[in-house]
Specification:
Elements: H1 11-34, H2 36-57, H3 65-89, H4 95-131, H5 137-161
Length: 166
Amino acid sequence: MALTTAVTAKPVSIFAHLLGIILYALFMVLGPVLAAGEGLVFGILGIYVIFKFHNEIGLWNMFTLHSWLGIITICSFGLQWLLGLFTSLFPGAEKTAKATLMPWHIYAGMVIFVLAVCSTEMGLAQAFIFLGLGRSQEALIVNFTGLFIFLFAASVGLTVFLPRGD
């Protein structure tokens, strides 16, 4: 199946498509960070939307590393969310058991966050290539979005791994 990407759309529709890509990327990265339960819902909704879109235009699902990492990210996030929920709400759990699990919870959260960032960056690169942006204003928007996501991830990593004054 050959994929052709001839751009014959009007600038407004190209802008709307790029805005959709950027919002999709931001929801996939910032959703889990801002609100855990809602982030999981946004992630599942994002996967549903992209599967539906691929089916409508006749593209295969799950054919890039971006899609595989995205599915792994959402599944891992859902698993950690459930485990964290049951561990924190379990009435018989001792504080020492919760304290023992906390470093592992933080580590798993960082791994999931890095997976989300990597998947988002690969999705931006994939959109850049599929849309054939080259040297254009849209390309600058996509590139700066990727740069800002990287800087956000670096600041989150710094915040998590710097020693605290507890």
